[in-house]
Amino acid sequence: MIIKSPINLDLTINSGQTSQPPWIREGDCFSNAVLVDGKPVIFKVRQSGNYIDFNLNDKTAVSKLNYIFDLDFDLDKFYKYLSNNAELADMSKFCNGLRLFLAPDPFECVISSICSANNSIKRWTKSVSQIRQKWGNRHQNYYTFPQSDDLAKAYLDDEEEFNLSNISDIEMCCNNLKDCGVGYRAPYMRRASELFSHEMDLSQIHEMSYDEAFETMLKVPGVGPKVADCILLYGFNFRQAFPSDVWIKRIVSYLYFDGKDISVPKVREFGMEEFGDNAGYVQLYMFHYARKSGLMEKLKK
DNA sequence: TCGCAGGTAGAAC
DNA sequence: GTTCTACCTGCG
After folding, report:
1. Which of A151, A179, A185, A234 has the CB geometry, 3.0–4.6 Å to A19, for a possible disulfide?
2. How large is the average pLDDT for residues A128-148?
3. CATH assignment of A246-300, among 1.10.1670.10, 3.40.50.720, 3.40.50.620, 1.10.10.10
């Protein structure tokens, strides 16, 4: 069925949002296994004009799809908002149809976001896909992301796997986090998984205020301010989050402070204050505008 | 071969 | 409280 909300699927799915790796692409179709009422269902979407063509039409699945691609957000209204701000006015034409790509599974978003810190999009998406394949559940050719208590049992590296399993050759060891290319983030990911399987309940984040949720996420190993904001934005739909990294800092400094170097925490405060509930979207658009308009190349120097 | 990029943790100031 | 440095991997 066609869902009549304008979106650019390719741009949205491949924009590097830390909710999850891109869905599997075959021709013009993107697909993934999504849990609906706890059961894995294969979602297939394709671009149809400005809209999404979705393979399912039952109410719960459609509602889940609406959530993942943020289809209830009024893009036209947002574009009016951008065009009313001189610094942002150019952005919509470079990012037309870009929407939030929200995590169907908040735990996957937590691990993806930890993995994305100090990392490239290409590398963290590859790592998360491998984690799904090693510890998730297979459905047809798709894998769902493991639960926290399953990932909490993962070995950290070849050596630990060799010592604690009955594999006789260390060269054969590949069921461990470091083998997914996560590097020094492996212990953070496992400790975070342990935390969510024993002490912290991710579902409670939804009930919290933004500030409380932010402080709570900072207690998770491997989670600093940038990653906490990504988790809150992409994993829990806190739209006032303004994840601030070096690129957002460069862009904000260029657009709003005449190129003067502003610290990352100040940029975060500025973004939240200035953009309110649009902060998450503005951050998303800023990054892709910089990428596509050539501003990023210019700011590298 | 090496230098560089990228957030966080933990130590040092 | 703020600043410095090590951490891992892929890329140019």
Report:
1. A234
2. 95
3. 1.10.1670.10
A117 touches strand B (CB under 7 A): yes
Q: Of the listed A44, A226, A266, A300, which one is catalytic?
A: A226
Domain A1-102 superfamily per CATH: DNA-3-methyladenine glycosylase AlkA, N-terminal domain (3.30.310.20)
- Strand C nucleotides within 7 Å of a protein CB: 3, 7-11
Say how far residue A36 (Cα) sits from the centre of its chain. 19
Q: What is the pLDDT of residues A24-83, one digit of tens each?
A: 999 999 999 999 999 999 999 999 999 999 999 999 999 999 999 999 999 999 999 999
Concerning whether A226 is annotated as a catalytic residue, the answer is yes
- Local confidence band at A228 (pLDDT 50, 70, 90 cut-offs): very high
Domain ranges for chain A:
1-102, 105-238, 246-300
Judge whether residue A225 contacts strand C, using its CB and a 7 Å cut-off.
Answer: no
